[in-house]
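Please describe the entry underneath.
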Amino acid sequence: MKNNDIGPVTLHQVAHAAGVSPATASRFMNGTARVSDAKRRSIEDAIERLNYKPNLVAQGLKMGSTRTIGVLTQSLVSGYFNDAMVGIEDAVKAAGYALLIMSGHWHALEEAERVELLIGRRVDGVVILTGNMSDTQILDFSQRVPIVAFGRKLEGERVFGFVLDNYGAACEAMELLIEQGHRRIAFIRGSDDQEDAHARLAGYRDTLARHRIEPDPELIVAGDFQESGGLQAVNQLLGSGARFSAIFAANDLSAYGARLALYRRSIRVPEDVSIIGFDDLHSSMYTTPPLTTVRQPLYDVGSCIGTMMLGMIGHHEVKVPLPALSLVVRESVRRLT
């Protein structure tokens, strides 16, 4: 019979029901001592009958661990970050860890405050998914808790930060457009304070140079990795009278905004203008037309992060191969005749 109506069941009640001492029941639950098969079955049966719910935080604090990992994301509603967080969760849950997630909203001060709050909650490690904090701040935080950071290169005794090959993937996207006959290619930039934005812009410029295509500064327009930024960027291009047959957007959200701006001017995709994005969000295969883009395997990124974090918490080195980016060709690019 479940004991649900008389308040929380205590460890002493479980021990009494199992016919063992509280110390034996505690050591069994903490995994710090072996017990006989008969006592193990008695304790497990008592836990089931009484519906005992151990206080994991209290147990963890006694053992110097809360079995939680803090995650600093930038948005709680973004498909980009959600895929990575699912990957992290799946990688750590088998080891008994849970995630405590907070958002920094791309504000460095708020991000630092959230990391302080996570450390105050006694998390065993902190994951930082991009953001605007300085490397120095993150290195300082790593003196207090292990940190794995995605979107920047960092290395230290208790910190590891990594990036994917944004430059190479941007070059591949540009090669596709040029192979399809495009020469007047507009580029919608990402946020200026993000390393991946700079890498993608460098890939755009260097690929043009390799094909001896003179880059036109008028075709490089500001963006902010948001739909609204892509919309404003294309409105700026059209308002300036610039000629272009293709757009390379620094991420898929910018491409969505660009697509809307073209639609409102009755400019067809891809018949009049081709578009390539970057990220391969789930919704990109359902745009009209389906978006050609660079796939970031964000679930795999999260899985790598989780595995790295468990290694850092356990004080052992983990070699994790980083996922590769790949070009996904759909229907938003056409060959010029």
Observations:
- The chain has twelve helices and twelve strands.
- The radius of gyration is 26 Å.
- The mean pLDDT is 90.
- The first strand starts at residue 68 and ends at 73.
